[in-house]
Amino acid sequence: MAGAALPRPGLAEQTAAPPAAAPAASTGTVVFAAASMKNALDAVAAAWKADTGKSASAVYASSAVLAKQIEQGAPADIFISADLTWMDYLDKAKLIKPGTRRNLLGNALVLIQPADASTDLKIAPNFDLAGATGDGKIAVCTIASCPGGIYAKQALESLGVFANVEPKLAQADNIRNALTLVSRGEARFGIVYATDAKADPKVKVVGIFPEASHSPIVYPVALVATSKNPDAAAFLAYLSSQAATKILLGQGFTILSK
After folding, report:
1. Element housing 147 (H / E)
2. Which residue numbers in the chain have pLDDT < 50?
3. Which residue from 86, 132, 191, 245 has the least number of CB within 10 angstroms?
4. What is the pLDDT of residues 54-87, one digit of tens each?
5. Within 13 Å and on the Cβ side, how many CA atoms surround 127?
């Protein structure tokens, strides 16, 4: 399934998303970013502050929620999505600035469990994820609209196990909330990004889903068309600086060249 397009957002997904909270003080550059970016982007913003004296604040949520908030006029300067679909959505609505979009990061999809749990489960076609879960749950983010959930569904379908595990899915509104369910022991397993697993010592990776089992995980970034912030373009460029690249690599992301 590598290279397959992600499903287009449907009307239900477009209208049902809860609002994302804006920063309390919208000073400096405001970045609307996929929830999986939190640790890395907070560190990049701190480095930007140290290097330039300028501020950048972030709003984190599912890419679907953030895209809809931007469409509704939320005051964002930069959008970082965890998939191409929601950036395409804003692009087609002419809500991102022409010529500013690029693919910034890549990631991997992993199966996790609480750090104190153990399993011999191996990710492979027709693997018995449902049996290993037992009466427990598998935490994912919303499979209809959240990028991490869409990738998870693709992978489970590709491996032939989605029908068996679907009743056991616990769907969270963003991928960090799915991570938390596993971290707290409220879910037997979870499907998140490799960077999420790296960010939480209370979980451990069971295995990595094959790249061919889901669409490539790509994080595009762009300036929002309505932004009037003179520093936004400089922060966008800073995301590709040596300092930011070191932070992003350290958090487990891969750097994309275009």
Report:
1. helix 147-158
2. 1-26
3. 245
4. 999 999 999 999 999 999 999 999 999 999 999 9
5. 18
DSSP 98-115: TT--EEEEE--EEEEEET
Ordered strands of the 78-80 beta sheet = 56-61, 29-34, 78-80, 218-223, 102-106, 254-255
What's the CA gap between 192 and 49, in Å, rounded?
A: 30
Q: How far apart are CA 178 and CA 245, in angstroms?
A: 26
Task: From residue 88, give the alpha-carbon distance in Å to each of 64, 96, 193, 224.
Answer: 11, 9, 21, 13
User: CA-CA distance, 62 to 186, in Å (whole number)?
Assistant: 21
Tokens of 8: 């287009």
pLDDT value of position 14: 34
d(CA 237, CA 50): 16
